[in-house]
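U., I forgot to send this yesterday:
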Amino acid sequence: MSIDTTSVPERDLLRPLRYLWRVPLVLLHIVLGILLCGLLLSWAQQVVMTGGREPFAHRMTRLWSVGLLRIFGLRARRFGKAQDDPVLFVANHTSWIDITMLHSQRAACFVAKAEIAGWPLIGWLASSGGTIFHRRGNNHSLSAVMQVMVERLRAGHAVAVFPEGGTGYNGVLKVFHARIFQAALDADVTVQPVALRFARDGRRVLDAGFREHESFFANIVRMLGAAPMDAEIHFLAPVPSTPEARRRMAELSRERIIAALEDRPE
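Result:
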């Protein structure tokens, strides 16, 4: 298996030029996102998919996300078919842009760390998009989050979580926390694993997401100047619901994501 462990060639002479046009575009796109949240999402959070048809608010979220990926030089590529709402998506987590990748295919309520709620602008955008905030390491917070997840799922929404509980590095997929799968059991909805993968010329790029000890701002700057690559979203086979074995549901989801992340032999 061959894996590209570098996001760009050693001397990328085009990087400074990419900043010249990508920075103004991303600023304009953020303004568009503010307008979208203020005029549409803030009053349309209750709309849900009916009969497999995508609501207008969800379509706008998807198109805005596709646009943001393109500005960063990422081409969204979908593999497989997403289950209709309501559904619990469980995905691997390497970057802040993972949320945008999944949103480029399906609008969903994400579970995210509580610190994001206090970030200027980003916290408001996340809240407007229906993000469920969780204070890590706090069992009371997790119980409250689980309750909200069940409510959203029963109301017909899609909910997305990163069962690793944080971002991974260097292509290592951490253990999935099984408790989060209880929300799907309580709401009686499908669990669908989703593999999020960066690739260039068909080979996986391991360090496109966060590097160890890399800050959020540093990662944005690095990705904004990076050479074009694919942002692959693999919708995998749903895992069977087994009330007596949440751990097995977590392990099976992780196994399927690991298999999808590997490079395919040519």
